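Could you join me in thinking about how sequence relates to backbone shape in a protein? To get us started, please write out a protein record for me. Would you write everything just below, so we can both look at the same thing?
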Amino acid sequence: MPFELCNAGTTFKRFQLKVFGPYIGKFIHVYLDGFAVYGDRRLHFCSVRAIFERFAHHECFLYPEKCKVSFEQRLISKKIQQILEIMNPLNVEIVLSLMGMTTYHNRFIPNLARASKPITSLTVKDVKFYRSLECAKALDYVKERLASDPIVLSLG
């Protein structure tokens, strides 16, 4: 970190946004003085490599004694299993329950709101409940993302 950024939280945050901007929300989460790289197993090392390339491009240095590297992988819980077992929502109550359960895990599903829009549109009042092919695709996407193994690498 350049010397002039020491003890300047706002400036440092702006610097982090400049360095990691294109990747924030895709596979990196920036907070205070650290960051976490996350993603599925297949793309994770490409993501980490991209972050290190950004460091090199912006002439940032990591001091190993100040870095904490951790690896987190989650198993499919009972709640996720319940979501995976839902074939097709039959009524608005099931859709609301499904969306509540998936929203709890939204940090593992990129663009959940956009991806699940066909499903949430089933909850609009005074509109006939109709399951379309788009709803089935959206449900499959949500299930696929929940069932995949995300990897979280935290440096900071």
Notes: The two ends are 13 Å apart (CA to CA). The chain has a mean pLDDT of 78. The beta strands are 28-31, 34-40, 70-73, 150-155.
